[in-house]
Structures are given as structure tokens and as C-alpha cells.
Amino acid sequence: MDGHDYRVRVGATATFGRVLLSARDQHLVIDGPVRNGCPGEAVTPAELFLGGVASCAGIQVIARERGLVLTTVDAEIGGTVDRSASALFPAQGAARAPADVTLFSAVALRIVLGGVGDEEAAALVAAFKAR
Q: For the chain, which terminal residue's Cβ has fewer other Cβ atoms within 10 angstroms, N or C?
């Protein structure tokens, strides 16, 4: 088995709704959203989550494994959290999400690859999605 272990620490700061995230020797300020009375100036948890999903390194690795050279990789992701929507867990049929769980009701990811043809790009995106 090829496992990977990750550890991230998060601690509150003196500013309400602001935390400092540390991963290895990297540090990032994260703010809660303004609608919750938080600063909303730094990246929010939802934006951080979406950014992690859209990270393009996975496509670069897949391309290298296939002997393809990407000249550019650009991705844009957007998501909507609608707390009033009756979110469903697709894997559980029509079961409702618990009230204390935040779910994205919609997510859209656009990836633009340079240096490869349309078929190769489609295959790379399919492989990325399968991971």
C-alpha cells in the first residue's frame, strides 16, 4: 500500500474568526466569512477547500507519467454553499445531510491545458477526476 500521511495544525489568533494554519514550515492566515462576523479578509475555509480540489499538480504528474509535456495548466473552481437547500447524500439515496454538516450544493471546475491536443487534454482531465 502506498499511503501518505499529512498533518496540519490550526490555532486561533487574537482576531475573532481568524486562525493560523501551519503545514510543515508553511503558514497561512484563514478567516471565517463576514456573514459569520469574521474578518473575511484572508482566504476562507471554503476557498481553501476548493483550491485544494483544483490544485493542478495532479494533472502535471499524470501528464509526465504519460510522456506528455504541458506548457500551461490553468484551473478555476467555484462552489455554492446553500444552507437552505435540502442537501442529499447521493451515496445514501435520499438521506438528508445532518444539519451540522456543510455541503457544497454546486461545484464547477474548468481546466485549460496547453501543449496537448483536445483528445490528450480530455484523457488527462478524466484521469485527474478519477483520482
A: N
Of the candidates 19, 82, 30, which has an alpha carbon nearest to the alpha carbon of residue 52? 30
pLDDT band at 102 (very low <50, low <70, confident <90, very high): confident
Cell of 90: 447521493
Q: How many CB atoms lie within 10 A of CB 46?
A: 15
| Residue type for position 51 | G
* pTM assigned to the model: 0.79
Rg of the chain over all Cα atoms, to the nearest angstrom: 18
Give tens-digit pLDDT for 68-93.
999 999 999 999 987 765 555 555 55
In contact, 75 and 56? CB cutoff 8 Å: yes
